[in-house]
Design a protein that fits this description.
By secondary structure, the chain is an all-alpha fold. The protein is about 70% helix and about 0% strand. Helix 12 crosses helix 13 and helix 12 crosses helix 15. The radius of gyration is 20 Å and the shape is globular.
Length: about 350
């Protein structure tokens, strides 16, 4: 990634190295790095939330941001995210994440629970060093994340869940942390309040797109692409938006979902359901929703472009990557129309 002066790529690489170094320090805690934190320091992690935060900091005066605060905030959002993944893997009985064994699979649920909790406590320690506004936003984002995850668990196998209720879950458990990252980065970078608000809305829509893209890939991608068996949401009874939209179609799509959700669940039913869903209307409708949310996210960037020209092009390209990953195409992705960089 490069801005007009060819500087942002080098700056971003340096910041991400510092973030990774701080995360490594947290994992080791002054001792040889324990194997139960291999999942945390895996280089397969995209550090996407850190990336959004760092890029959003460019929306202000790039020379104004305090590097130490940026690195702490970027590490904080990753520790919070990764800590919840340790716990998610216990709930989901997940053996693999990013193509590698999970802490839960290698060390058992007790170790995974404690290791995940350690990361949450350490993230709170780092955020305590940030300005008050960042600390308050962190608390709200963490609370929403837990509530969203709890609502998702309550809705397991609930075929009466509405799309609106599912979107609320997505907003709380995933999108809110991206909104926190974007707004915190912009604030620490000294962006104007109007820019901070727009980037917070961008982060929220980006997060919704990211979660929906992940839900779509669970149904459409191969095991090699996912690093695990596809159809995990169906197998676990998680009522994602594509699954709900498929149910709403009735006919073969609804029957396939109902068969896959029967207890006990069989892998053959999951595989058969995936074949039906991939040829059905529900996935197509979900991809349409994805593009609408992407357009809304780009709208926030377009409105911010003249004030935040150091940040918007890279954030736009991240948004395009998410859509391309889920749909296999970027041709229909909306472009920034008023950016004069």
């Amino acid at each position: 990634m490069t801005d007009a002066n060819g500087e942002i790529g080098g700056w971003l690489a340096r910041q991400l190295e510092l973030v990774e170094s701080l995360i490594d320090d947290v994992a080791s805690a002054g001792e040889p790095k324990p194997s139960f934190h291999d999942q945390l320091v895996s280089r397969r992690s995209k550090r996407l939330r850190s990336l959004v935060l760092l890029l959003a900091s460019r929306a202000g005066d790039p020379g104004r941001a305090i590097e130490q605060d940026l690195v702490r905030a970027a590490a904080t959002v990753e520790l919070l995210h990764e800590g919840t993944l340790y716990h998610d893997d216990i709930v989901d009985l997940a053996d693999r994440r990013r193509g590698l064994p999970t802490t839960h699979a290698v060390h058992g649920p007790a170790v995974a629970a404690l290791a995940g909790s350690e990361l949450l406590y350490r993230s709170a320690e780092l955020v305590a060093m940030l300005p008050p506004a960042s600390r308050r936003a962190y608390g709200r984002a963490g609370d929403a994340l837990c509530r969203g995850q709890l609502r998702e668990l309550e809705a397991i196998g609930d075929q009466g869940l509405t799309p609106r209720q599912r979107i609320r879950i997505m907003r709380d458990k995933t999108a809110g942390l991206f909104a926190f990252a974007a707004a915190t980065g912009a604030q620490l970078g000294g962006a104007r309040p109007t820019v901070v608000r727009r980037l917070r809305r961008f982060g929220l829509r980006f997060g919704l797109c990211y979660q929906l893209a992940d839900d779509l890939r669970d149904l459409t991608a191969s095991e090699g692409e996912l690093g695990r068996e596809p159809g995990a949401d169906l197998a676990d009874g998680v009522m994602t938006l594509p699954i709900l939209l498929a149910l709403a179609q009735g006919g073969p799509e609804a029957r396939a979902v109902c068969n896959a959700l029967r207890r006990p669940r069989h892998r053959d039913d999951i595989v058969e359901a995936l074949g039906t869903l991939r040829a059905g209307r529900g996935i197509e409708l979900a991809e349409g929703v994805l593009h609408v949310w992407a357009e809304q996210a780009v709208h926030e960037l377009t409105a911010t472009a003249l004030e935040a020209r150091h940040a918007v092009r890279e954030l736009h390209d991240l948004m395009a990557d998410v859509v391309r990953l889920a749909t296999g195409t970027g041709t229909a992705f909306p472009r920034i129309t008023t950016c004069t960089m």
